[in-house]
Amino acid sequence: MRRFPANALKQILNSLTMSKLLGLPVLASEHGQQVDNLIIYVHWLMIVLFVGWLAYFVYTLFRFHRSRNPKADYFGVRNHASSYIEGAVALVEGILLVAVAVPFWARAVEKFPKESESTRVQVVAQQFAWNIRYPGKDGEFGRQEMQFVTADNAFGVDPKDEHGKDDVQTLNEIHVPLVKGADGNNKPVIVYISSKDVIHSFKVIALRITQDAIPGMRIPIWFRPLQEGRFQINCAQLCGNGHSNMAQGFLVVESQAAYEKWLASKAGAATSFE
Ligand SMILES: [Cu+2]
What we know:
- This protein is an alpha+beta fold.
- Helices cover about 35% and strands about 20% of the residues.
- It is built from six helices and ten strands; from the N terminus they run ααααββαββββββββα.
- The strands form two sheets. It has a five-stranded mixed beta sheet with strand order 3-2-1-5-8, with no helix packed on it. The chain has a five-stranded mixed beta sheet with strand order 4-10-9-6-7, with helices on one face.
- Strand 1 and strand 2 form a beta hairpin.
- The structure holds copper (II) ion.
- The site of copper (II) ion has 7 residues, from loops.
């Protein structure tokens, strides 16, 4: 008798994984797997609940059919099975929240990498585009002040500050390097998110990051890129008539050499507001 080929079985099992079943998009950041895992766990719970409720519904159709129960029972259920089941569901939800979601949130929000060991980018959203800024060769962003903000100077860079002279500014295009950082892992990227007008939301699905862009606030987020690629940036808050135009933003993960070349090609083109 021929043995069932192990490879075929493996292939079938692989194609049945939850992330494929859910059609989750390409994953390009390290923490993204944890986001996906939470989505997958919640879906498993929902599948169990769905099947459970459906089975119970079908059961009641037969069990309490009029032919078997010509007279209604005014006492109803006397055991506590439903209470136990409710308790179990609440327990699973509690575990998901306390053991999975909260620790993940704490890591993402509290354990920021060192600025000096990260690629840093500023983003100022506006109707309907993404202004992008890099600190340039000196590694320091120029001084910013509200009074300097104009149509061309979305970041309010002080034209007299030397640190600002080499800053690199682009529109709708972020490049980050995929390279080993000081700690041996992929070099982290910190993105500082703000807005010039209304509330927008910086979302890169492939990186599993979303952060509201709020006028008057600068909110940092961070990630470690996992693979090279060109990933769409979306605005995740309905911000006006041209909201969908904000999907013209792209985040490119590329080699260190390609990143440096791109940055050099943009240098000097940006901060010319006098
Ligand atoms: Cu927007």
